[in-house]
Amino acid sequence: xxxxxxxxxxxxxxxxxxxxxxxxxxxxxxxxxxxxxxxxxxxxxxxxxxxxxxxxxxxxxxxxxxxxxxxxxxxxxxxxxxxxxxxxxxxxxxxxxxxxxxxxxxxxxxxxxxxxxxxxxxxxxxxxxxxxxxxxxxxxxxxxxxxxxxxxxxxxxxxxxxxxxxxxxxxxxxxxxxxxxxxxxxx
Length: 187
What we know:
mainly alpha; rod-shaped
C-alpha cells in the first residue's frame, strides 16, 4: 500500500513539474502568474497530503507498538484472550489506516485529474494562441503588400497628373502658336 501511495506521489510531482514548465512558457505575464499560483497551490496540497500520509503511517506504527507493549506487560495470564483482543485491535487499526490511505489516494487522484485537465486546457489555449499568432503574421504580410501597392499607385497618380499638365501646356502652346501664325502673320 505504501509503495502504491509513493508511486501516486511521484506521478503527481511530475505532473506538477510539467504544469510549472508549461506555465513558464506562457507569453502573457498575467496568464503565467495565474498558472504559477495554481502550481503553487497544487504543490502545497501535495505536501499536505504527504504530511497526512506520514502522520497516518506514524499513528499506525505507534498504535501497533503500544498494543504490543501492553501485551508484553500484561503477562501470560489471559494471554489467549489478550492475543485475540490484540488481533482484533490490530485488524481494526489496519482497517482504519487502510481507509485513511485510500482517502489520501483518492484525494491525490483528484489532484492528478485536476492537473491533467488544467494541462489539457493550457495546451488547447496555447495551440489557439499559436494559430492566432500565425494568422496575425499572415495578415501583417497582406497589410504590408497593400501599403506598398497604395504607395505605388500614389506615385503613379502624381506622375500621371504631371504628364497631363505638361500635355495640356504643350497643347495650349501649340494652339497659341497656330493662332498667332494665322491671325498675326506679320509678327
